[in-house]
Predict the 3D structure of the following.
Amino acid sequence: MVIAAYSGTFDPITYGHYDIIQRAAHMFPRLIVAVGLNPSKNPRFDLDERVTLIRDVVKKLPNVEVKGFSGLVVDFARDNGITVLVRGVRTVGDVDYEKQMAVMNRDLYPDLDTVMLAPSPEYAHLSSSLVRELAALGAPVEKLVPAAVIPALRERIGLK
């Protein structure tokens, strides 16, 4: 059975991420959402919080599980029997970067392929950093993130 992983920081998970998760879950018999520690991105939510939020969001997708990890995604992939990485790409810059990473990852782990998915048009503008910025400025984010994320996001930025 092919096991795929969609990796990222997901700080927080957006509808754009969820779009990719749903579509990848239809493509692969098993999908792991691999939530990276990545302290260099200065996440607003700690790893356990992000894992918990994503589990709540994907709970109705039976072939999807959520796991946190630190270190190289290729090591996580190898340790979990993953042979496909799913990557969301919004821009030409994303494609160039992900192509570079795919080649490097395949060099480090020859059994690992990368599949790039463009977002659905309604989510092509979304990023976690944009959501955090809008939320901090008091803008409504209900159309940007799943409902389970909103209370945690408001609390994290100091809004009620």
Summary: The first strand starts at residue 3 and ends at 8. The first helix runs from residue 15 to 27. The CA atoms of residues 48 and 58 lie 15 Å apart.
